[in-house]
Design brief:
- This protein is an alpha/beta fold and 335 residues long.
- It has a single domain, classed as TIM Barrel, CATH 3.20.20.70.
- It has 11 helices and 13 strands.
- An 8-stranded parallel barrel has the order 3-4-7-8-9-10-12-13, surrounded by 4 helices. The protein has a 3-stranded antiparallel beta sheet with strand order 5-6-11, with no helix packed on it.
- Helix 9 links the parallel strand 12 (294-297) and strand 13.
- Helix 6 runs parallel beside helix 7 (233-243).
- The longest helix is centred in the N-terminal third of the chain and has 22 residues, at 14-35.
- The radius of gyration is 18 Å and the shape is globular.
- The structure holds flavin mononucleotide.
- Flavin mononucleotide (FMN) binds at residues 65-67, 70, 89-90, 104, 113, 115, 117, 119, 144, 177, 180, 223, 252-253, 271-272, 275, 297-300, 319-322.
- Flavin mononucleotide (FMN) binds next to strand 4, strand 6, strand 11 and helix 10.
Length: 335
């Protein structure tokens, strides 16, 4: 069915098709919230030996990358598709409309996307309310946090801290996103002088929230850009270790254009199959530089691609663009 459905969906503008998919997933999630008696996931998506990473247990290593569920909060339906974990976000403290449309473009020949969404999301309070309604969790829910566009970089830490505070009770792990190319200046926060204080403030706030709630501190990870220079990666890994970060995610979308195509003139971050080589290269370099656990994302479409990321040092992997092209059967194929 999927090739036919995909052909129909791809007749629509990319964001409209995404909206239709989300609408369907919202219906399934609402149904399960109302009627399911226990967390539900397909039997094939449970690995015989459950996996432990970041102090959390996973039924399999395949997660949904940030940006697909930007705050609609449909984990029940996503776990139903087999994902081992789901990363929601990026969420900012205040709601944000994002960039004007069109802002999402397909390059179907290369199984790639370009997006300049710009952190469109309903804001931390609204996401917290939606997460509070989730009754059954069939796996860990991660939250990817960012800053509002109009918050100056000098005040960025206060945005990350505020979002963490609001959402701390509802997520199993947090991902600090400073690597999206679509918020002007955001990637400057990856520079060594800004990164340490930002992460320190976020981790300290996490500990305060955990103490207040009487729970163990949640893992905090950092998501990196594939456009960081190779020689900057060991420095970033060292800061991550020094501040007590739990792990690193490599990578976000790239500003590079690894293929030639008329759509490549669009501004935004490039994702999908042609990003795979660079994303795996960054992962490998981080693996050589640190003992911190790593999550590999970027260009995964097949089981071979998953194996490549695991061999390069990833404990877990995530997929986004491969899911758009591969459809609902993606996780089963990857497992
Ligand atoms: C439309 C779209 C929106 C995205 N939004 C976010 C986001 O809000 N936060 C984030 O950290 N990454 C975001 N990403 C990046 C993905 O999480 C992932 O890191 C990247 O796309 C590479 O993986 P892929 O090749 O499997 O898509 C987005 C990607 C796409 C395609």
């Amino acid at each position: 069915m999927w090739p036919l459905l995909r052909a129909l969906l791809f007749l629509l503008p990319a964001e409209t098709a995404h909206g239709l998919g989300m609408w369907w997933l919202e219906i399934i999630s609402a149904w399960r919230r109302r009627f399911a008696q226990a967390p539900r996931r397909p039997t094939w998506s449970r690995m015989p030996d459950s996996i432990e990473a970041f102090g959390l247990r996973f039924q399999n290593r395949i997660g949904l990358a940030a940006g697909f569920d930007k705050g609609d909060v449909v984990p029940e339906a996503l776990f139903g598709l087999g994902f081992g974990f789901v990363e929601i976000g990026t969420v900012t403290p205040r709601p944000q409309a994002g960039n004007p449309r069109p802002r999402l473009f397909r390059i179907s020949e290369h199984h790639a996307l370009i997006n300049r969404m710009g952190f469109n999301n309903p804001g931390a309070d609204a996401v917290a309310k939606k997460l509070a309604r989730v009754r059954h969790r069939a796996g860990p829910i991660w939250l990817n946090i960012g800053k509002n566009k109009d918050t100056p970089n000098d005040d960025a830490a206060s945005d990350y801290v505020a979002t963490l505070q609001t959402l701390y009770a509802y997520a199993d792990a947090f991902v600090v996103n400073i690597s999206s190319p679509n918020t002007p200046g955001l990637r400057d926060l990856q520079s060594e002088d800004k990164l340490g204080p930002l992460l320190q403030a976020t981790i300290a706030e996490g500990k305060t929230c955990a103490a207040r709630l009487g729970i163990a501190p949640r893992p905090v990870l950092l998501k990196l850009s594939p456009d960081l220079a190779d020689d900057a990666l060991p420095g970033v890994a060292k800061i991550a270790e020094q501040v007590g970060l739990s792990g690193l995610i490599a990578t976000n979308t790239t500003l590079a254009r690894p293929v030639e195509h008329p759509v490549c003139k669009e501004q935004g971050g490039f994702s999908g199959a042609p990003l795979r080589t660079r994303a795996t290269d960054v992962l490998q370099r981080l693996h050589a530089a640190t003992k911190l656990p790593l999550v590999g994302v970027g260009g995964i479409e097949t089981r071979v691609d998953v194996a490549e990321k695991l061999a390069a040092g990833a404990s877990l992997v995530e997929v986004y663009t491969g899911f758009i092209y591969g459809g609902p059967g993606t996780v089963k194929r990857l497992i």
